[in-house]
Design a protein that fits this description.
Blueprint: H1 3-6, E1 11-15, E2 25-30, E3 40-44, E4 46-50, E5 55-59, E6 64-69, H2 70-81, E7 87-91, E8 94-100, E9 103-108, E10 112-115, E11 118-120, E12 136-148, E13 157-162, E14 171-178, E15 183-192, H3 198-212, E16 218-231, E17 238-239, E18 242-244, H4 260-277, H5 286-303, H6 309-319, H7 322-329, H8 335-342, H9 347-361
Parallel strand pairs: 1-7, 4-13, 11-18
Antiparallel strand pairs: 2-6, 3-6, 4-5, 8-9, 9-10, 12-15, 12-16, 13-14, 14-15, 17-18
C-alpha cells in the first residue's frame, strides 16, 4: 500500500461478511509478478482448448494463468491492512449510499458515516437505468473441488474451455483446474438468460468427471456457485462523491465475465488520479469504449442466436495465437490484432451486428 495515498487519511472498510469463508475462486492471466503473487494458489503455463471441431494444448508465454482462492485473498488483504493503523474494518450491512453536497453518506443498519469519498462495489439495483442494457446474459457456474485417491491430473496444464458437452441450454463449457495430481477444481459454466435448477448443474458435473475425465472415485471437498452479469449496460464510474468499482463500476468484461484484473486496473487508475490530481475521478479511455463496442457485438450475436458460442470461440482459438487472444480479452490489443480476431469469425454475421451496435452507440 502506498503511504502518500493512505497514511494521512482515515480508511473505513465496511462489508456485511467477515470474509472468513472460502466462498469463491478467481482465475486470471498476467505476464509479470502481480500485486497478489504471495497468495497465488496455482499457476499454469499451458492450457487445453477443446471443442468438437478443434482441440489443442496451447502455450501461454509470456502469460501465466493463475488461481487465487477467496480465503487466501481475504486473509492477505486483512493482514496487510492491519499494518496501517488508519485502516478500520467493520462488519455491517449497508442500506444506502448517497451524496450530500461535497460529502458522501453511507447508511448501515446501525450507523451513518460521512466521508470525503466512498468507493462502492455494491450493485443496489437491478441492471437498468438511463443507459439501459439492451443485452443481458448471465454467466453462471457451479464448481466442485475434488480429491481423488489415485493420481488423475497433470497440474502443469489447465483446461481453459471444454465445449464437448451439451449446448442445449446455450453456450456451455467446462473448466478443469488441477492443483496437484489428485486435486482439481472442475467448473460447469454457462452463458444464458436464465439459471438452471441446482440438480442440473450437479448432474452435468458428475457426468463430466466420471465420463469426460474418467475419474471414477473422488471426494468433493468444496463447492462454489456464482452468477456474473454479461451486459452492455454503461455503468457510471462515479456519481458525485461516490466512486464505483467492480460490477457496479462496469469492471466485468461483458463478453467473457472476467473481472479480477479489470478491478485491479481500475484501482490503479483511481490511485494514480489521487496522487496526480488529488481526486479519484477518472474517464473511460478510447480503448475502453472500443472494447465496449466489441463486447456489445458479441452479446448481439449470442443473444439473438445468430451463431453458437462454442462455434465462435472455436474459430477464435483455431485461428489466433494465445497471446493475441489474451491481449484481446484484456482490452489491451492493437487495432491490427483486433482485426485479426475479427477475421476469425464470419463477416456476414458479425459485420451487420457491428454496424448496428456502432450506430446505436452514437
Amino acid at each position: 500500500m502506498r503511504e502518500p495515498f493512505f497514511s494521512d487519511k482515515k480508511i473505513l472498510v465496511i462489508d456485511q461478511s467477515e470474509k472468513k469463508q472460502n466462498d469463491r475462486t478467481w482465475c486470471f492471466w498476467e505476464k509479470q509478478t502481480g500485486l497478489f503473487e504471495p497468495v497465488v494458489h496455482h499457476r499454469w503455463e499451458r492450457i487445453h482448448f477443446f471443442s468438437d471441431e478443434f482441440s489443442s494444448a496451447l502455450h501461454l508465454a509470456p502469460y501465466q494463468y493463475k488461481m487465487i482462492r477467496g480465503i487466501d485473498f481475504y486473509s492477505y488483504v486483512k493482514t496487510e491492512s492491519a499494518k496501517h493503523p488508519n485502516i478500520e474494518w467493520r462488519t455491517e450491512k449497508i442500506k444506502a449510499i448517497t451524496n450530500n453536497h461535497n460529502k458522501a453518506i453511507v447508511e448501515t443498519e446501525t450507523a451513518i458515516f460521512t466521508s470525503e469519498y466512498v468507493f462502492n462495489s455494491i450493485l443496489f439495483k437491478e441492471i437498468s437505468g438511463a443507459k439501459k442494457a439492451k443485452y443481458l446474459l448471465l454467466q453462471h457456474f457451479k464448481g466442485f473441488s475434488i480429491q481423488t485417491k489415485e493420481p488423475c491430473f497433470d497440474d502443469s496444464i489447465a483446461t481453459f474451455m471444454d465445449f464437448r458437452i451439451s449446448q442445449q441450454y446455450g453456450t456451455a463449457f467446462m473448466y478443469v483446474l488441477p492443483t496437484s495430481s489428485t486435486t482439481a477444481l472442475i467448473e460447469y459454466t454457462l452463458f444464458t438468460e436464465k439459471l438452471l435448477q441446482k440438480e442440473a448443474y450437479e448432474t452435468v458435473l458428475r457426468e463430466y468427471i466420471s465420463s469426460g475425465l474418467s475419474v471414477p472415485d473422488y471426494e468433493i471437498v468444496h463447492e462454489e456457485f456464482g452468477v456474473i452479469p454479461m451486459t452492455n449496460k454503461r455503468f457510471p464510474l462515479q456519481d458525485g462523491r461516490i466512486v464505483y468499482m467492480g460490477v457496479a463500476g462496469g469492471q466485468v468484461k461483458a463478453s467473457s465475465g472476467y473481472a479480477f484484473q479489470f478491478i485491479q486496473k481500475r484501482t490503479e487508475q483511481i490511485i494514480q488520479s489521487m496522487l496526480t490530481k488529488g481526486n479519484p475521478f477518472t474517464r473511460r479511455s478510447f480503448a475502453d469504449r472500443k472494447c465496449q463496442l466489441y463486447d456489445s457485438v458479441l452479446l448481439n450475436v449470442l443473444s439473438k442466436n445468430k451463431m453458437k458460442g462454442d462455434k465462435i470461440f472455436t474459430r477464435i482459438f483455431q485461428h489466433n495465437p494465445p497471446e493475441r487472444i489474451l491481449q484481446f480479452l484484456d482490452n489491451e490489443s492493437s487495432l491490427y490484432n483486433d482485426m485479426q480476431i475479427m477475421r476469425s469469425v464470419p463477416s456476414n454475421i458479425f459485420l451487420p451486428a457491428a454496424f448496428y451496435e456502432l450506430i446505436r452507440s452514437i
